Amino acid sequence: MESKSGTPLQNRQKFRAPTPKRRTPPWQVKQDRVVRKLHVVHKYDEMLTSENKEFIQQFITDTYGPQTEEYGLKTYKHTPLKQEPLLRGTWFEDCRRSGLIGIKIGVVPQWYTNGKRFETTMIQILDNHVIKYYPPEKFVVNKKKYAKRFLKEGQLGCLVVGAVNCDPQMFTREYNGLFTEAGVMPKKLLTRFPIHPCAAMQPGTPLYAAHFKVGDVVDVTGSTIYRGFQGVMKRWGFHGMPASHGVTKTHRRPGNIGAGGEKARVWPGTKMPGVMGNKMRTLRGLTIWKIDHKYNVLYVSGQNIPGEVNSFVYVHDTVLPRRRLKESPRFPTYYPEDYEENPLPEEEYHPKVFNFSDPTIMFEEEKVVAKKK
């Protein structure tokens, strides 16, 4: 680097990995209003008085209902559907239905009935609602996001699902307008699930953890933990060079990246240093071992679901050919009014999982044998 006078200057700034850009989907409008001051992002300040804030809060309560507590968290009461629900379709094999948006809240162990321990990940389903339905003729497929073998152009529509209710003051007017048809509070996150038209649901329909059954096999998608710029030992698991005995300044380097001869170049796909993490990855073929209907929590097999704790994940029926649904699920979703006579229990266990409310030791009654005289 040189100054205006031509004098060389030293650049001693530490290199930092560029922050990944957040690309808003083309079907979604701008969500937040921010103000930049001296390269620092600040939330938009409305400059409201205390009286105005009370008035706005009262208007929110009148529109969306009183604030209540559901699943152990504060939220607003679910608003009724503005329109009559759509007619329920008929399930068929290989039918695609909606998924759920969950929050990864931790890893806990479970035990089989034979005493063997295994790990499960807890995924909580918070304030999931159907926001909008796009029929197949209006569904624009993102071919870069979905693999060709999972797409059926012209046959699949999509459902826009939102999760986690938020204060409308946090978002722009355009973003709040997306939820007018559904009649629900603005959501923190929106996503699309490709579905068959028979699995369509009316906007405003709530979705619960009971959307799935115990024993169902699901796929979970999430964003991996962002690690920044990492070397080959951290990024790819290389062993590195020896610590001594003639090794100089190459202890953590990759070594040769391209020999001579016909190769004579760095081939595409060579494992090298770079930005690690912040990639959407899917873990397939996970079994649901337990469902907590009181707090809307799914207990899914495995402890390596992508994402940090408290990050969003997407749960949907598996696409693995040999593990797809063979019997009809709760289609198109779980409706509480269908189970008023026989409500679901607070906790539902897989038959192979041990329930700690069950007795562990059984004693048989002693048989009294009459003594011979």
Automatic annotation (TrEMBL):
Residues 1-12 have a biased composition (Polar residues). Gene3D superfamilies: Translation factors. GO terms for cellular component: mitochondrial large ribosomal subunit. Residues 1-28 are annotated as: Disordered. The keyword Transcription regulation does not apply. GO terms for biological process: translation. Signal peptide: none annotated. It comes from the Eukaryota. Transmembrane segments: none annotated. GO terms for molecular function: structural constituent of ribosome. InterPro entries: Ribosomal_uL3 (IPR000597), Ribosomal_uL3_bac/org-type (IPR019927), Transl_B-barrel_sf (IPR009000). Keywords: Ribonucleoprotein, Ribosomal protein. Belongs to the universal ribosomal protein uL3 family. This is Large ribosomal subunit protein uL3m. It comes from Polyplax serrata (Common mouse louse).
